[in-house]
């Protein structure tokens, strides 16, 4: 079976890293990129150099008005309106919608001009079916034309929550994500259209923030619907975040028993999605990690056999981008079965 042909709309952090992930994994072909704010020469520069993830390990240049990445030609467009992007010209079957703007089914469907083109929103969506690879991607069916890859935090939390709930039953839980700053934050204090403190300087502060990541787990694991909620702290680091899941268990277990179950899942059905470590790690150790969730066995604690705090790391940029590619690969397999 041929590889899925993919277009990327929005060449920001996730758009660029989806491209890197695609070339690393070699399971999909990127055929086109659209961004109205970045010209072709600048795209070459932005692919080649990255302050967080380092220099691209390959060749990037301009050839006949297209991107040439490792000898593969990629069309480039600069359209503001998705209706005007000629995805069909390049044979794209799937579009990664990574602008952060078109996050509902109605808005994302602007990409779809012919039957067969599908859109993967690289963000949570209010109404699109939401998938977390390793958790619920098998519920995808070929009738779906717009889907969401959920958030980076949901991709970290859901595999861990699934393992714990399947084995010990989560009665209720609270999640905190200690999250690196993102491009939506301010470098210095400035006005915020939402909560006032969201406008405070990202490099100077630990900023409490809202997140729907924990509640979204209930959408991908229906058994946990209404049992989890959470919040975030935005902190002055450029990449890698960490989830703290504090939960009450229905079936009592020692912390060692919990660790053993997570380790077995990481080495078995969730290999490549969930990892297990007992090393004395810190956040920067996970820059470039392709897994969704790396359980830190030494960081967690338990109060008793029914009340535990579990800690899991994630590269909120690259790990997530790898799951976007994996979801498309799975969709393509199902669509052509």
């Amino acid at each position: 079976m041929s590889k899925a042909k993919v277009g990327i709309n929005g060449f920001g952090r996730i758009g660029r890293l989806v491209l890197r992930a695609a070339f690393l994994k070699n399971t999909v072909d990127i055929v086109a990129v659209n961004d109205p704010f970045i010209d072709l020469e600048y795209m070459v520069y932005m692919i080649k150099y990255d302050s967080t993830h380092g220099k691209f390990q390959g060749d990037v240049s301009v050839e006949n008005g297209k991107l040439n990445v490792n000898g593969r030609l990629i069309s480039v467009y600069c359209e503001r309106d998705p209706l005007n992007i000629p995805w069909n010209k390049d044979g794209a079957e799937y579009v990664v919608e990574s602008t952060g703007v078109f996050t509902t089914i109605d808005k994302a469907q602007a990409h779809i001009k012919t039957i067969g083109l599908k859109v993967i929103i690289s963000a949570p969506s209010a109404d699109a079916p939401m998938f977390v690879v390793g958790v619920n991607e098998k519920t995808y069916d070929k009738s779906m034309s717009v889907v969401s890859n959920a958030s980076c935090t949901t991709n970290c939390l859901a595999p861990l929550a699934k393992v714990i709930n399947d084995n010990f039953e989560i009665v209720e839980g609270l999640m905190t994500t200690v999250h690196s700053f993102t491009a939506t934050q301010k470098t210095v204090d400035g006005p915020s259209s939402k909560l006032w403190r969201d406008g405070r300087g990202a490099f100077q502060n630990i900023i409490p923030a809202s997140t729907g990541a924990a509640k979204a787990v209930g959408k991908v694991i229906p058994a946990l619907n209404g049992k989890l909620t959470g919040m975030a702290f935005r902190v002055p680091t450029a990449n890698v975040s960490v989830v703290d899941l504090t939960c009450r268990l229905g079936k009592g277990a020692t912390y060692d028993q919990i660790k053993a179950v997570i380790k077995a899942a990481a080495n078995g059905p969730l290999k490549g999605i969930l990892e297990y470590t007992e090393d004395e790690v810190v956040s920067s150790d996970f820059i470039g990690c392709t897994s969704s969730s790396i359980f830190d066995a030494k960081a967690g604690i338990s109060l008793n056999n029914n009340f535990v705090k579990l800690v899991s790391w994630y590269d909120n940029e690259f790990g997530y981008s790898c799951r976007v590619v994996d979801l498309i690969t799975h969709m393509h397999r199902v669509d052509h079965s």
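Residues 318-335 form the longest helix (18 residues). The first strand starts at residue 4 and ends at 9.
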